[in-house]
What does this fold into?
Amino acid sequence: MTMKIIAFGEVMMRMMPPNYKKLSQVDTLEFLYTGTGVNVLSGLYQMGHEVYLTTRLPDNIVGQAASAHIRKLGIHDDYVCYGTNHIGIYFLEQGIGNRASQITYLNRLDSSFGKSQISDYDFSCLDGMDALHICGISLALRENLREVAFAFAKEAKKRHIKVIFDCNFRPSLWTGEHDEIKHIYEEMLNLADIVFAGYKDATLLLHKQVDQSLPYDKQLRNILMQMCQDYHIEFIFGTIRKDEELTGYMVTSTKMVMSPKMRLTVFDRVGGGDGFAAGAIDGYLTHMEPQELIHYATASGVLAHTTYGDSPVVSKEEIIDFMKNGKRDIKR
Amino acid sequence: MTMKIIAFGEVMMRMMPPNYKKLSQVDTLEFLYTGTGVNVLSGLYQMGHEVYLTTRLPDNIVGQAASAHIRKLGIHDDYVCYGTNHIGIYFLEQGIGNRASQITYLNRLDSSFGKSQISDYDFSCLDGMDALHICGISLALRENLREVAFAFAKEAKKRHIKVIFDCNFRPSLWTGEHDEIKHIYEEMLNLADIVFAGYKDATLLLHKQVDQSLPYDKQLRNILMQMCQDYHIEFIFGTIRKDEELTGYMVTSTKMVMSPKMRLTVFDRVGGGDGFAAGAIDGYLTHMEPQELIHYATASGVLAHTTYGDSPVVSKEEIIDFMKNGKRDIKR
Amino acid sequence: MTMKIIAFGEVMMRMMPPNYKKLSQVDTLEFLYTGTGVNVLSGLYQMGHEVYLTTRLPDNIVGQAASAHIRKLGIHDDYVCYGTNHIGIYFLEQGIGNRASQITYLNRLDSSFGKSQISDYDFSCLDGMDALHICGISLALRENLREVAFAFAKEAKKRHIKVIFDCNFRPSLWTGEHDEIKHIYEEMLNLADIVFAGYKDATLLLHKQVDQSLPYDKQLRNILMQMCQDYHIEFIFGTIRKDEELTGYMVTSTKMVMSPKMRLTVFDRVGGGDGFAAGAIDGYLTHMEPQELIHYATASGVLAHTTYGDSPVVSKEEIIDFMKNGKRDIKR
Amino acid sequence: MTMKIIAFGEVMMRMMPPNYKKLSQVDTLEFLYTGTGVNVLSGLYQMGHEVYLTTRLPDNIVGQAASAHIRKLGIHDDYVCYGTNHIGIYFLEQGIGNRASQITYLNRLDSSFGKSQISDYDFSCLDGMDALHICGISLALRENLREVAFAFAKEAKKRHIKVIFDCNFRPSLWTGEHDEIKHIYEEMLNLADIVFAGYKDATLLLHKQVDQSLPYDKQLRNILMQMCQDYHIEFIFGTIRKDEELTGYMVTSTKMVMSPKMRLTVFDRVGGGDGFAAGAIDGYLTHMEPQELIHYATASGVLAHTTYGDSPVVSKEEIIDFMKNGKRDIKR
Amino acid sequence: MTMKIIAFGEVMMRMMPPNYKKLSQVDTLEFLYTGTGVNVLSGLYQMGHEVYLTTRLPDNIVGQAASAHIRKLGIHDDYVCYGTNHIGIYFLEQGIGNRASQITYLNRLDSSFGKSQISDYDFSCLDGMDALHICGISLALRENLREVAFAFAKEAKKRHIKVIFDCNFRPSLWTGEHDEIKHIYEEMLNLADIVFAGYKDATLLLHKQVDQSLPYDKQLRNILMQMCQDYHIEFIFGTIRKDEELTGYMVTSTKMVMSPKMRLTVFDRVGGGDGFAAGAIDGYLTHMEPQELIHYATASGVLAHTTYGDSPVVSKEEIIDFMKNGKRDIKR
Amino acid sequence: MTMKIIAFGEVMMRMMPPNYKKLSQVDTLEFLYTGTGVNVLSGLYQMGHEVYLTTRLPDNIVGQAASAHIRKLGIHDDYVCYGTNHIGIYFLEQGIGNRASQITYLNRLDSSFGKSQISDYDFSCLDGMDALHICGISLALRENLREVAFAFAKEAKKRHIKVIFDCNFRPSLWTGEHDEIKHIYEEMLNLADIVFAGYKDATLLLHKQVDQSLPYDKQLRNILMQMCQDYHIEFIFGTIRKDEELTGYMVTSTKMVMSPKMRLTVFDRVGGGDGFAAGAIDGYLTHMEPQELIHYATASGVLAHTTYGDSPVVSKEEIIDFMKNGKRDIKR
It folds into this structure.
């Protein structure tokens, strides 16, 4: 069952000193192109879907190389537009053992994407799609982007396309009043069918009340069920990361289903969440049973921590093999 | 005590994306030449023996580079012949953490080795040798190879050279009737002095009966002792890999000796078994005491998991140091 | 003016020791996926066209990585099919100065492509295309492939799609009788609108007679004009490579147009001819004037010698800038 | 004779695909930190001087790595300040043979340097210096930078420090009226003792009139002598690059001295001019004879084309050896 | 509070096969310049101090590259002198898992440093310094070096500069009588204010008596307190490394303070002790509270095991973050 | 016609910054093992001979890796002995264009080879050999080595083995009186059958008189013929390198034969002379005709400049193809 999914989102350049070195210790960088949308689509391609990205890239070799990179990941670049000359860049100093990974951003606001506006996009790209993915970062960066994001969501609604929204709330990116931010998020949640969110999104961002004397799981279930009810959300997905274990959950207005706790082994941390998201979306679009779905999505998230880069590149077969057989030595 | 050992076996090219990446993520490959015979001989060279490979390689730069590579490992290439233009290749996507390593073979049957026949080899290369090593893969690939393998075993017998046979039974490589395969193996086992074999070889391949209500160790001992008796084998060696621990065993027609359980740490999985085999053969040829022998062989196998490549490259001193002192930090 | 071009052709893996080293001097290889069709399409993508490859690739990670690679080059993989597990591989030892580059092939006949047949392909992929590209190598490798090639050419004819045929006659690949080979080529030439051919194709392969007392240029013109007439070919394109200079020509049944002689500088030799072909096809499809067309195609060929890999990756702008301004130092 | 030279100027990051590849062909980049000031100081360090850079760098690991890099080049970072989080970046696709090198800039205006202002700098850093170097790029980028540049020049004048100004006029960087730009340059030229300038600076930028019927050399001499007179410049230095040869010149208000024509071989084009500048400044500060000085500076420029990176790294000994002995094979 | 620290010590070249390979498996080496002094100063630079090395380096490109390398680490090279042409080199075969790292030294005695003598150094470099660091290796290598080390210590004493002495007793480096060695060490200890020493230094080297029936901690406290009293040492610092945990201690003539046990994760083992030393010296010079100081120093040591190279390159902020928050996933 | 050749000579480590960078610009080095004997034997292996090296290497991993490296080149290591721990190292900064290559030696005198003496070698290794190669460097380094060299030459003489001596006179390596040096060389020349020598060896070293009014070729012929007569040398070989062209010569006591002038293209300069030597020795041992021999040897020398490393790795087929067809583009 092949579905068509389109994402509206930023493409950034990730630059990493090789071999766990610090930036001042190297004179080469490994780079790739990334972004929440890119990552989720990459995962969905591995799962057999037809995937499209719509974004604005620099009108130069950096933008062309970005397109080539995402095509290689299996993403169609038909709806990418080009303009101006800047792209967001982040440096990743990969940690190991006791040393944490560190991410340092260069100017992200003035990128071709950051400065793009409604007139840059052709909404007919939504025709024939089954789902649209939007990331909360687009709401945060600049007002013009926020307008584009809402325009996409509304155009999708018109066409009865499922709207998938990943909250991805990062306070550091926001400059406005909290009430205004909450309002913006609520507007988007009202448009969304599927949402990726967690405890902090519900409490810190949306101010959902919760009885803190309850166990954590119960609290989480209550506030996310509340969110589903308040904004008419079909499903909320998310993960709990604790003690080097990952547990996925899936919430509707009436219940919560949780995956088994799965042991995490981290090779490349960034993009792990997007691996989970790809699995959840695939499971949703192909109508998996709830328990299987959330197990599968969590397995996808766990394996996304074991591959180089932010974009999931494990195949559906590998995920299913891992769900069934756990960690294996070698396959011939 | 330097012995002379010759192996008849395939040389393949192993190609690996660097840094745990997937093939589609790279544009360079690390490569080396490998094969059960190559690996066992490489280990035996490190232990002080004089080692020779007899095989057929492509008659082009790929074959010449293979010879150069095995010479670097310490293996004499005097008895390598050349012809046709193909070599077996496998791609290794190295796994990490929860992600398994994956091996993908290209055409192996039509290699220079796969198509070689008795007339390509000069059996006088056996003169003066102390032992001959043959791998079960040669029995599986093609009938012409099987003929060569038997010819070598019989010529060795004539010269009172010890015949070492590694079962290495891989059902996927065999296309014939099971009875026929069993018969072929039994013929080879009757020629062999030293055999590498395990539970599955005895039960699935050779149909040895065992009382499954016994503990695993007992079962193993019984069927392997049975094998020794049935085929007049001097020693059977093998390992049990469980819960990231390795235990070696050594069986005669009357008893079984086991190594201590040794904790495994895996850096490069492929060829670990060949490291054990090299240790066992060295121990056998240099007349170590059984308990020391099997401990030493297992230590050799454990350390073979910690070096790059399929071919063991740790020195005898390192193995003995590890047997005595366990894992150490740094040696100056 | 964007056209749609599809090529039927082989994808091979090219493996190259880095930095002009010999195979026996390295333990890493730079690799990429290549083939006449791949290369021509890659060039046409850079010139603004929509390009498709139809072929059969191995049904494993090697085939998937091949698809990812050609997508990165801008080629659609919608019409690629998968089956069996082998791919043609060649090793390129890149020469420098007085030392020639050397190419060594491994088994090419038994590749997924080599063994593919008509039932593996869906000819509806031709619907809506403007041109089909076929390479003479497909005629040479195996009979089953030859059948596929002719089927494609005939299906294209039916749909009034231009058939582009690159003779690429390599005697070493052919095993049959010369008359039979000539006959096969003639059959294909009768189907073709645009042909890439040179002096040797006309004389050695097709036995065209020529007055050898004439200057080389005249001889060439006469036999190629003859070819155009004999097989109803619209245009024949080709190049003369002499004294480190390249001259392109374009021949119809009535005349020959030649480019200026352009100085060659060689960084990566393989695929230079495909760069010329891409330029010629672009010029033809976009109706350039003859003199401009052949100058442009030759400039494209010249620049294709200056980039890594077999597949042209210089942009149309770079080619035009080079035609106008010649060799330049640096562009900001 | 060790002098103390300080430069005020931008530090950029240069990112280059290795091995002459295009950006879309690679996943690693070689990078370094560069800038006219950095390059000139690097050259002067090799010639035995004590050199300082004053600039503003990002207040993060990118800025720290920049400081570490310039320290490695021998430049003191005592007067570097830190603030905001962006740095100018350019991508260099290195050309070869017929293919030109291409430089692509990302956002340069909003860098930490681009947004720095007078209050970020401590002019006491000029105390005890012998010379100050300023590059015309600082005049072009933004008004705030222009203010800093003039403040540095005036503070240097007060302290009787030689002011060295490199015109480096790039029309594409300027957005204002031409008259205003001319005026700004003239103001700086009036402050400068030593100037790097050429034909276009004098005619296009400063509108110097010249009798175009004269030979090029004469024209050049006349307009540069005129510049020296008009702005009270001690020396103007520059080079003529033609037919893969480099000729240096040195002009006062009364005469012009030219170097021999020196054959250029280009390995890394960018920064060649800065190698010449370093040589000229060293010659000037150490009171070389005019003819020797301009030969030495040109040799320095020529050798700067043969090393990796924009910053000259050949030693004074190598330059002098090259002046005397020309191109040599090998030195032991 | 920025202090000025100078170290007198050897600079060696460290050469390492990449990716955990053995020397015979590679044809490239990663190299860097290292030494106890270099490493301690590198750590102190990260903590905000002004640091200087005084040593003798080869008078050729190897020495110049060494200076460039240490400047990059933040160390001033003003007091480095140059002479003769040799440098100490060690090869590090990095172990992994069960395989130990192995260090192999080439000729170290005949290096430019090893052969340097008092007349090579200018003791005025001590003027204005707050502390001098000396390593026990300098006492061991050669008599001439020992003389330089004592001259530095005495000159520092004269100027009331704190003398920091790292015992670093390696029996294999010493050739003389034990009594003489003991005497030399005692002479240096009498000059030292701060000492890095452990159980073996006190017992094997200095023959301190201890009641072995006491627990290890008590024994250690008693003999180190005894050392403080005997040689009038202000503080002795050191670590206990056991069961993959590190515990730091700090001893005066009257008490011992211990850090919490901190779990070790080893990425690059060499230089871990120097990371501890840098932390301890920083804590001492900036008057941290004892408990905080030893915790901080141990955290610094623990993190020094997680970065490439012998020289600590983690920032003070990272150390403090690790002390407070422990191991973290990712920091943005 | 396979001959057996043994060389007595030094093995050094060559370390080179990759990609034409300077040492201070890199943190990795490409390394290999080299030496005149190694290089000549490597060339002779490619020409089909059985080759052996006798030398002393460090008794550690550096020595073992050296053995592995030379085995890879095709050289037997049966007669290598091991002792002490040092090896000669040189750094090669490879030049390009106008910039010369620079070689910097570290301590070479105290290497395992440099300190080896007669008792370290077993002269029975000469039994059955056809030729012995000795290099003048062994005469220069130390007296003990000189003794070994003479012992080898005399033992070879006894066995009627051809003695090949490469003068390789480098004044900088010698410390003694000139007369003594001349005497030592003359003693060796009296033992030698085949000698590699040139103009400077004859005039500066051996003080042969020559009529300087003659053309250079004539002078050269006269003094080398004189040498042949004076020391009873069968053949003297050498090359003239001028204007990027190489000409080989071969002299007996009665005549001189010269090769055609061959254009040089330099990729890796070091070891070019050893490529010529290998060709000359092969030609001599296989009884080529003089004119063919010297052409072949010169072609071998020319091609040795086009491969990475000091040791020739082009095959005999490539040399012959180059002799016949000159520079070629590509070979399939």
Remarks:
- The mean pLDDT of chain D is 96.
- The interface with chain C takes residues 19-22, 24-25, 95-103, 105, 170, 172, 241, 266, 269-270 of chain D (CB under 8 Å).
